[in-house]
Amino acid sequence: MSSEESEVEKLSALREKIDAIDEEIGRLISARAECAQEVADVKKASLPADAEILFYRPEREAQVLRKAMERNNGPLSNEEMARLFREIMSACLALENPIKVAYLGPEGTFTQQAALKHFGHSAIAIPFSAIDEVFREVEAGAVNYGVVPVENSTEGVVNHTLDNFMGSNLKICGEVELRIHHNLMVSDVTNTNSISRIYSHSQSLAQCRKWLDAHYPKAERIAVNSNAEAAKRLKGEWNAAAIAGSMAAELYGLKIIAEKIEDQPDNSTRFLIIGKQSVPQSGVDKTSIVVAMRNEPGALHNLLEPFHRHNIDLTRVETRPSRTGAWTYVFFIDFVGHVDEPLISDVMKEVATRCADLKLLGSYPKAVL
């Protein structure tokens, strides 16, 4: 037998093995979907006919994804394994009731990318032009959840998102962390040797400042409402380029001429999932609160001292002026733990005695990946 014939036989045997594995994967996915339908039937039977049924459970999904990564022995990465399981869960959930998700649009933004990463591609994602519109849609019940940006590792907090929490009763149900890669893109009519203006969101322009200084120092930098809007503007402009994500380039038919131009290679943005439900413990959780304080000496120290004394990890502290009175401030605080844990509950009670007002924004699963 020649080496060529031997290779053909080996490939044929491997393909037969793959076909058998694919058949088993398909059978197991169908079995999982049937089991998910049975879970939905049990939930329906245990509640009144007019009651709202929570098919989506953030803490349960987080637990499933963590277990999938713990069991993973390669060669696929943990992130890839979790992504596959996310899509399976998304498809199974859509059999009963597809999740409707509002996000800060338009199409092609990083917020849409975050929504799909968290809920999977079987969710119905609907773009809105402003963060307060996303909050209103969730409050009105027109959608199940909303996705809004809250902070970037390079440029800091998104104040408009924090301000919306002050007047809203919505809760934080989850978080998404997304690595942000910026790309310079052009349309099919662009003369790449004559680029004199570059469109993007103000934060993206700031995140690529050094690269732009080095490569396009004379080009005018024009801030627009979103990176997707920047991408849409290129059609018909022969001397313009845009900075946006790869999703926008694909959506609007643009050509990427420079990849990953962000100044910080670990550039990432954190997004919040907002909804109406309180989320039970998942095992690895975070809590967000907003606290109102008078601007007086030692106020911040007195506020944070109980966290330090009980060794609770604070992951973020932000200050915003209050809307209710002059020289009054509110602190947005994120920390590790869930409000249903006895220690966290006790610390919350102690903090409440040291401030003018305390509002729980939510306890929710820490971003899985």
TrEMBL record:
Coiled coil region boundaries: 4-31
Pfam families membership: ACT, CM_2, PDT
The EC number(s) this enzyme carries: 4.2.1.51, 5.4.99.5
Catalytic activity as recorded in UniProt: chorismate = prephenate; prephenate + H(+) = 3-phenylpyruvate + CO2 + H2O
Subcellular location: Cytoplasm
Alphabetized CDD domains for the sequence: ACT_CM-PDT, PBP2_PDT_1
SMART domains: CM_2 (SM00830)
SUPFAM superfamilies: ACT-like, Chorismate mutase II, Periplasmic binding protein-like II
Every Prephenate dehydratase domain range: 100-276
Biological pathway: Amino-acid biosynthesis; L-phenylalanine biosynthesis; phenylpyruvate from prephenate: step 1/1; Metabolic intermediate biosynthesis; prephenate biosynthesis; prephenate from chorismate: step 1/1
Record GO terms (molecular function): prephenate dehydratase activity
Domain ACT as annotated: residue spans: 288-365
Chorismate mutase domain ranges (all copies): 5-100
Keywords: Amino-acid biosynthesis, Aromatic amino acid biosynthesis, Coiled coil, Cytoplasm, Isomerase, Lyase, Multifunctional enzyme, Phenylalanine biosynthesis
Protein's job: Catalyzes the Claisen rearrangement of chorismate to prephenate and the decarboxylation/dehydration of prephenate to phenylpyruvate.
Protein name: Bifunctional chorismate mutase/prephenate dehydratase
